[in-house]
Design goal:
It is built from twelve helices and six strands. The chain is of the alpha/beta class. The radius of gyration is 18 Å and the shape is globular.
Length: 279
């Protein structure tokens, strides 16, 4: 935790394959701006446990709510990067009393660009799809693929795909991503979350969650994001035209890390407007 105990709380939630350390360029600046800043590692990531539970945004939302209740002990502003953006949105919808406002930077969900048709809601198709997803995830040789990627230059290439500026050679960033991927439970957790995220009910997808959200929400997007491109932001605006979207130049999928000063400034200004000035 950073910041004074009397300051309003703000919780940072990392994205896929990352951990709380990915907020390395944000936490101190937000604390200096008058917030009491927390960060946590979602189950399956960072230094958290890597269980074979049904890991999806509903479970992570429950984990976040428990963190708010037991550690923060007050409703808070939630800021999420990528998968963390979906998690903070889920927490705001499922546990609204604990969330003052949410920020997603950006908001990923395949359902935003490939919503299910009426045919996919037929019971027979749902059962078949369930078995196909489970079979595919069981057959994938993750025990070979994950260690291969985690111990080879392929990992650096994967990290680079999330950034517009060169980051190969950033040892701190490499360690942040590589260490959890090299732990014994990484394959188990990845397989569990792959199945669970693919088989979520519609009520747990971003389109449905956006329709139920009542708290203020800000979307932040890198203009050069290749992993969750701007067309996804366009779809979010189609669903919720009232949500502000701030586009950050010269950065990709990780605007909070790549253009941290601009990110922090936009975030602090928006928070002052919608949540009151931090004091």
């Amino acid at each position: 935790m950073l910041g004074e105990a009397s300051h309003p709380p703000l919780v940072l939630v990392h994205g896929f394959a990352a951990g709380s350390g990915h907020w390395r360029r944000n936490a101190a600046a937000l604390a200096a701006a008058g917030w009491r800043v927390f960060a946590l590692d979602l189950l399956g990531f960072g230094a958290s446990s890597q269980p074979s539970l049904w890991l999806d945004n509903r479970l992570w939302a429950r984990q976040l709510q428990a963190f708010l209740e037991q550690v923060v002990q007050a409703p808070a502003v939630l800021v999420g990067h990528s998968l963390g953006g979906l998690v903070v949105l889920s927490c705001a919808v499922f546990f609204p009393a604990w969330v003052r406002a949410v920020v997603a930077a950006p908001l990923p969900d395949p359902a935003l660009v490939a919503g299910p048709g009426a045919w996919s809601r037929r019971p027979g198709w749902r059962r078949l799809r369930r078995w196909l997803v489970i079979l595919l995830c069981r057959l994938l040789p993750l025990e070979l693929l994950v260690p291969l990627i985690a111990h080879s230059p392929l990992l650096d290439l994967g990290i680079q795909s999330a950034y517009a500026a060169p980051v190969i050679g950033d040892q701190q960033l490499h360690h942040l991503i590589a260490q959890p991927a090299r732990r014994p439970g990484a394959v188990r957790a990845l397989r569990s979350m792959s199945i669970a995220m693919a088989l979520r009910p519609r009520a747990a997808t971003a389109p449905a969650l956006l329709g139920r959200l009542r708290q203020p929400m800000l979307l932040l997007w890198g203009r050069r994001d290749q992993l969750v491109p701007l067309r996804v932001a366009t779809e979010v605006r189609r669903l919720r035209g009232d949500l502000p979207i701030e586009l950050l130049d010269h950065c990709g999928h990780c605007p909070h890390d790549e253009q941290s000063e601009a990110f922090n400034a936009v975030l602090v200004n928006w928070l002052a407007q919608f949540c009151g000035a931090a004091t």
